[in-house]
Amino acid sequence: MNAPKTHGAPNSPGVLATRNVRALVVRTAGTNCDRETCLALERGGASPELKHVLELCEKPALLDPFSIFVIPGGFSYGDDLGAGRVLGFQLRTHLADALARFVAKGGVVLGVCNGFQVLADTGLLEGVRTARAERGVGLDVNASGRFECRWVTLKAEASACAWLEPGELLPVPVAHGEGRFTVRDAGVLQRLKQNRQIALRYVRPDGSRAEYPDCPNGSVEEIAGICDPTGRVLGLMPHPERNLTPWNHPRWTRLGPRAEGEGLRFYRRMVETASALAK
Questions:
Q1: Do residues 53 and 27 touch, judged by C-beta distance below 8 A?
Q2: Alpha-carbon dihedral 211, 216, 219, 225, rounded to 10 degrees
Q3: DSSP 18-41
Q4: Is residue 104 over pLDDT 60?
Q5: Residue 113 near residue 75, CB atoms below 8 Å
Q6: What's the rounded Cα separation, in Å, for the pair 181 and 135?
Q7: Sheet harboring 223-227: ordered strands across?
Q8: In the chain, what are the domains?
Q9: Which residues contact 83 (CB under 8 A, 6 or more apart)?
Q10: What confidence tens digit (pLDDT) does each residue in 24-74 have?
Q11: How many CB atoms are closer than 10 A to CB 132?
């Protein structure tokens, strides 16, 4: 189904008139951030479409006309077998070749929260299609042992991801029970650093190193998001689509004048990157 186009006229604030970048948002049972993601993409300048994962599994070629592929947040299949495990299995089993071609031709892939968990399960973030036993990264139960829901601050690192500006601080909310970024061993962490795959870290609001609760889950080296070696596949636990307007932030009255939420810039730059790669 197509995402609704009733969020605002093309000339409304924060909405770009040009929509030449097509973005596919995938959903399944338990996905609950698909509409917000479509809105973020639309206001960022893309033309979003929403499809059920079974449509793609039946016809992987449906992915071909798109420049952006997004796995939004939620609790796919209730996370009954672990966060993102079932949806990750579906993508590995039915769409591994299609997704590999998509990235190879310059397509941009984003996974947010549950989408990050799914991407980690597929092996796509590690640049290879791995069996689950060979994965070097994962998202584990929060160190606190409970669901964490609060606003945090991210810092963009000097990574391969083209649409993140190094040093930029991004306030965004988190809402997850299994968001603790882990690595299999020190060698995996070193490889991520060498390939410039560490894209985002949790920090304190002033940009200094975070501890709990500013780092909500106990992630190794406060890592909140990583990209693949190409920089075109990004996964992160926090939700930039929940910070699109100045009024989304709970402290908006104390932040001074802001024309838009910082999450909108994130999506706009992603759309601009996808547009440039498609040329």
A1: yes
A2: -110
A3: ---EEEEEEE-TTB--HHHHHHHH
A4: yes
A5: no
A6: 13
A7: 46-52, 21-27, 68-71, 108-112, 233-236, 223-227, 198-203, 148-156, 169-176
A8: 21-278 (3.40.50.880)
A9: 75, 114, 117, 139, 176, 177, 178
A10: 999 999 999 999 999 999 999 999 999 999 999 999 999 999 999 999 999
A11: 13
In one letter, which amino acid is 125? L
As given in the structure block, the two tokens for residue 53 are: 């994962």
Q: Which helix (H) or strand (E) holds 99?
A: helix 96-104
Q: What was the pLDDT predicted at 255?
A: 86
**Integer Cα distance of 273 and 267 in angstroms:** 10
What end-to-end distance do the CA atoms of the chain give, in Å?
27
188: Cβ contacts below 8 Å, ≥ 6 apart: 136, 137
d(CA 218, CA 89): 26
Percent of the chain whose pLDDT exceeds 70: 91
CA–CA distance, 13 with 272 (Å, rounded to integer): 18
Q: Which residues are known catalytic residues?
A: 113, 239, 241
User: Tokens for 137?
Assistant: 């990264």
Q: Average pLDDT of 252-274?
A: 94
